[in-house]
Amino acid sequence: MALKSTIFKANVSIADIDHAYYADHSLTLARHPSETDERMMIRLVALALNAHLVQSECNGDATLAFGAGLSNPEDPDVVMRDFTGHTRLWVEVGQPEEKPLAKACGKADKVSVYCFSHAAEIWWRGIENKVARMQNLSVYRVPAAQSQSLAALAQRSMQLQATIQEGTLMLGDATRHVDIEPLRLK
User: Which of 157, 172, 159 is nearest to 8 (CA)?
Assistant: First the structure.
């Protein structure tokens, strides 16, 4: 019998000062049985960092949501689609291989990868030359200490504040917060 995903609910108030975007988001995260709290929270970070694109690139006529991710390798971890159904943003979390990234670059206007963990540097050195020609691909590394701290924020029901200023995301609840400074690799 297959294990089922664990459902997490998050109310996230996003104040993106860098992009003048302010909104509340009620989110449902389905954590795959093989997914860690750390990875799930990186998905939430990726959504928060890209939420402004709904307004700045689609004038509010788009949806930004979590994809099937680990449940379906053909689906992104976070996706933004405009009102026509066209994929404007495809986000992968972790250390994807070159072929799925090339496929994603062909399906979406923009593709972003948020890698994390201590192995992220090794992964990047191995794939950097292979993805150099992908013009619509951006790669960010979340430092391992910061990504590991995110796991402490994971609760089945979360009330979070996300403030983005000068490229730094401050994500926290009523008792603690984590500063995330993604480093752009590509």
Answer: 157
- Quick one: angle between helices 120-131 and 98-107, nearest 10? 60
- CATH classification (class only), 6-184: alpha beta
Query: In the chain, where are the structural domains located?
Result: 6-184
3-state secondary structure of 71: helix
- Strands, E assignment, 40-173: 62-66, 78-82, 87-93, 110-115, 137-141, 157-165, 168-172
Q: Which residues pair with 75 in a beta bridge?
A: none
> Is the pLDDT assigned to residue 33 strictly greater than 70?
yes
Burial class (CB in 10 A: 0-12, 13-18, 19+), 171: buried
The pLDDT tens digits for 113-134 are 999 988 999 999 999 999 999 9
What is the rounded distance in angstroms from the CA atom of residue 117 to the CA atom of residue 94? 8
User: pLDDT per residue over 144-166, tens digit each?
Assistant: 999 999 999 999 999 999 999 99
Q: d(Cα 46, Cα 65) in Å, to the nearest integer?
A: 11
Strand positions, DSSP E, 18-134: 21-31, 62-66, 78-82, 87-93, 110-115
Confidence (pLDDT) at 28: 93
How far apart are alpha carbons 101 and 107 in whole angstroms? 10
